[in-house]
Amino acid sequence: MRAVRAVDGGVRGMIALMQCAWLALVMVRGAALATMPSLRCVRQQARADAARAVHAGNGGVRGIIALMLRAVSAVYYDARRAGRHARPPRDFDEVQQMQYIGDDRFIHEFGPDMAPVATLRPGERATVRTVDCYCNVLRRDGDPWLELRKHVPGPNPATGPIAIEGAQPGDTLAVSILDIRPDAQGAMNVRAGVGGLGDYVEGCETRVFGISDGAVDFGGRKLPIAPMIGVIGVATAQVNGAICTETPHMHGGNMDDRHITAGATVYLPVSQPGAQLALGDVHALMGDGEVAICGLECAAEVDICCELIKGRAEQWPVVRDAAGCYRVNCSADTLDEAARLARGALLEFLERRLDGMTRNHIAMLMSLVGDLEIAQIVDPLVTCRMGIRAGILPELKF
Fold it and tell me: Which portions of the chain are predicted below pLDDT 70?
């Protein structure tokens, strides 16, 4: 009987120790203001590490358990490293006044009927934690994305939805991007037949790059980072139904516009009560076109402030960049159609705001100092944007 009790006590003791370890991880996450990714992401990364073991031929139970425990430790130390290297210190009072929205609740599609996970008042600031487009499972060079993606819930997760008090259909939600703090590493995956260079790429390759001191180490070359938000949008109109977070449309979504940086404001047409904002797919760096289907994909913290413009809205999203240039973003099946929509939407945007200037004169101005640009060519719909160069129309307001 003593032996049975001793064995039973040992088992209970081991269970208690394991529970304490998990509780300690949760407490560390809260105390660190979520510098550690959410436990949902920890679980996803643990499953991914187990899948790596199976993929590599190490399918033993002990090996998988060890790799899962190692994944938890790796996530924790990666988060600590991200906190040391990627986040500038912020004023404590400012942090205390900002609502924190963690990455444990995210969506994979924007729809007309979404339940919010948090609520903001107009003018209230918040910090939004995001996971990368791979759900944070690509952690090292050579990780097999085609296998690992079977263990994540879906593509391009966007944290949210976030309800904005008082937002109603016909309003505009103005989302000011106050700061973007990427984690200390980013991942890229290219594969044959995918993206704008799919005809040139061979096989499927993952690379992971470190980020420190405002630059990414790309094979010994230091490339200055320019963090931007790939996915930002609101609930869709009923007529448009649900739209995957991989796809851009009138609600915003996966526009992959490199001008959505700190200092920018994104104006989104509200189609449902509360607006239901969600954002994610942060890139530490990305060029126009996103030609290899990805930027430098990274988890991040994004500071935002939302305001409402009551009773008026544009048909398509408008981005005011950090330099004060307004651009209209339009998406379609082809570049020709996206470009046609963007130039027409900009003309109408200007016509409503430039008193005394005829439509013909606006067309002339657009031809002289307007720039029609490609945002991305790799999503289910491609995106073009057009705007007037900064400084030409200093009186222009949304």
Answer: 1-96
Contact assessment for residue 188 and residue 292, using Cβ atoms and an 8 Å cutoff = yes
CATH for 100-320, options being 2.60.120.580, 3.10.50.30, 3.90.79.10, 1.10.357.10:
2.60.120.580
For 284-324, write each residue's pLDDT tens digit.
999 999 999 999 999 999 999 999 999 999 999 999 999 99
326: β partners: 320
- Give the Cα separation of 334 and 16 in Å (integer): 58
Domain positions in the chain? 100-320, 329-388
- 163 with 118: CB under 8 angstroms? yes
pTM given for the model = 0.81
Alpha carbon distance 371, 121 (integer Å): 35
